[in-house]
């Protein structure tokens, strides 16, 4: 008798799930219809160039996180909404996003995390090409790596900002997990290892313990490493992502071989639009001044005076003179916030060069 009751209960719960699935599907389509209505209103108002609103997307995802009470985690719930929003936006105006390829790179992972899987992606081979694609309106946005928690700044991205007119429209933080992939079944069979130079450095401790004596070959990306392993004879391996394993049909020999478990890379979304305040933002800028005692102190003093937190500081050669440097700075707040605006005005008086790279929402998921 209890078995019959349990079977009946199981069927009852499944029936409730079926009803909820139908309601969820109806609501998603209703939301999509409203998205199309918004597109028509924007077109009537002449706002056709601003279908994607980074501050609006961030606000929606923050509300999802705030009201979520489980059992699905807040991050997973936000990712589900990210995909719904991506599908709805594609009905308004499909976006094209350039990323550092080939297919299967962490930059592609960051692109899909930020924009969802309903965008059109364009794989390019260099960071400078990503900037060119967006500047030429071939892509609406680009996603570029800017810093890693263990290896520091991505200097090629910083150098592009010196010469590009593009704005920063958003940021993505991606936890990086490196996997050892091969067509072989045993680590002992591996004679050559392909990976990006930075990845080799991030896994150096593990490699010294488990693959001492194996030849290390640096390539342009981890996805390129996986592609080479797929096309070569046995005896080689790649360090790459789980997505690259799937794309290139390789076996997993060892998972999560990075030396730092919290290894995270930060990516920036670049575009031509300015972003209004979302209520929780960052502002990035470039500043420089003549080489004199106290230069950096004087440049940063307006931030201290106005109670503004600096979250990042990098220096690069300015390319304008010997021993002259430009400083890349991230601060909390939006450039239109009163305190930030006052500090930026004071900075402009102190610096011989100041370039605002944009204000944008802090990473949400």
TrEMBL record:
Subcellular location(s) of the protein: Cytoplasm
Domain of life: Bacteria
Catalytic activity, as annotated: prephenate + H(+) = 3-phenylpyruvate + CO2 + H2O; chorismate = prephenate
Keyword Nucleotide-binding included in the entry's annotation: no
Record-annotated Chorismate mutase domain positions: 4-96
InterPro entries linked to this entry: ACT-like_dom_sf, ACT_dom, Chor_mutase/pphenate_deHydtase, Chorismate_II_sf, CM_dom_sf, CM_II_prokaryot, G/b/e-P-prot_chorismate_mutase, Preph_deHydtase
Pathway annotation: Amino-acid biosynthesis; L-phenylalanine biosynthesis; phenylpyruvate from prephenate: step 1/1; Metabolic intermediate biosynthesis; prephenate biosynthesis; prephenate from chorismate: step 1/1
Matching SMART domains: CM_2
Gene Ontology terms: biological process: chorismate metabolic process; L-phenylalanine biosynthetic process
GO molecular function term, any single one: chorismate mutase activity
Annotated site, Essential for prephenate dehydratase activity, chain positions: 265
GO cellular component: a single term: cytoplasm
Domain ACT: 284-361
Pfam families noted in UniProt: ACT, CM_2, PDT
Keyword annotations: Amino-acid biosynthesis, Aromatic amino acid biosynthesis, Coiled coil, Cytoplasm, Isomerase, Lyase, Multifunctional enzyme, Phenylalanine biosynthesis
Database matches in SUPFAM superfamilies: ACT-like, Chorismate mutase II, Periplasmic binding protein-like II
EC number: 4.2.1.51, 5.4.99.5
Domain Prephenate dehydratase positions: 96-272
PROSITE patterns tied to this protein: ACT, CHORISMATE_MUT_2, PREPHENATE_DEHYDR_1, PREPHENATE_DEHYDR_2, PREPHENATE_DEHYDR_3
Coiled-coil ranges per UniProt: 10-44
Function: Catalyzes the Claisen rearrangement of chorismate to prephenate and the decarboxylation/dehydration of prephenate to phenylpyruvate.
NCBIfam families: CM_P2, PRK11898.1
Name by which UniProt lists this protein: Bifunctional chorismate mutase/prephenate dehydratase
Organism: Candidatus Nitrosoglobus terrae
């Amino acid at each position: 008798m209890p078995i019959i009751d349990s079977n009946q209960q199981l069927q009852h719960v499944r029936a409730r799930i079926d009803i909820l699935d139908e309601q969820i599907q109806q609501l998603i389509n209703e939301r999509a219809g409203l998205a199309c209505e918004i597109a028509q209103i924007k077109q009537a108002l002449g706002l056709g160039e601003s279908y994607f609103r980074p501050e609006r997307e961030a606000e929606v995802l923050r509300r999802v996180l705030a009201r979520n009470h489980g059992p699905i985690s807040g991050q997973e719930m936000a990712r589900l909404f990210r995909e719904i929003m991506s599908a709805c936006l594609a009905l308004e105006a499909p976006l094209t996003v350039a990323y550092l390829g080939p297919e299967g790179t962490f930059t592609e992972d960051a692109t899909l995390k930020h924009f969802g899987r309903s965008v059109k992606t364009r794989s390019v081979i260099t960071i400078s090409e990503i900037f060119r694609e967006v500047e030429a309106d071939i892509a609406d946005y680009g996603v570029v790596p800017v810093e890693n928690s263990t290896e520091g700044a991505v200097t090629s991205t910083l150098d592009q900002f010196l010469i590009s007119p593009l704005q920063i429209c958003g940021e993505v933080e991606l936890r990086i997990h490196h996997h050892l992939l091969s067509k072989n079944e045993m680590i002992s069979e591996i004679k050559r290892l392909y990976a990006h130079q930075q990845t080799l450095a991030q896994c150096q401790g593990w490699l010294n313990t488990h693959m001492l004596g194996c030849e290390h070959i640096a390539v342009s990306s981890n996805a390129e490493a996986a592609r080479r392993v797929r096309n070569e004879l046995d005896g080689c391996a790649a360090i790459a992502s789980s997505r690259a394993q799937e794309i290139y049909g390789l076996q997993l020999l060892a998972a999560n071989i990075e030396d730092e478990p919290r290894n995270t890379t930060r990516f920036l979304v670049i575009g031509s639009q300015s972003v209004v305040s979302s209520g929780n933002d960052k502002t990035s800028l470039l500043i420089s001044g003549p080489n004199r005692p106290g230069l950096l102190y004087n440049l940063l003093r307006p931030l201290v005076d106005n109670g503004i937190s600096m979250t990042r500081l990098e220096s690069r050669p300015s390319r304008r003179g010997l021993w002259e440097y430009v400083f890349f700075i991230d601060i909390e707040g939006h450039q239109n916030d009163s305190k930030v605006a006052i500090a930026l005005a004071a900075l402009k008086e102190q610096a011989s060069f100041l370039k605002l790279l944009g204000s944008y929402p802090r990473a949400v998921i």
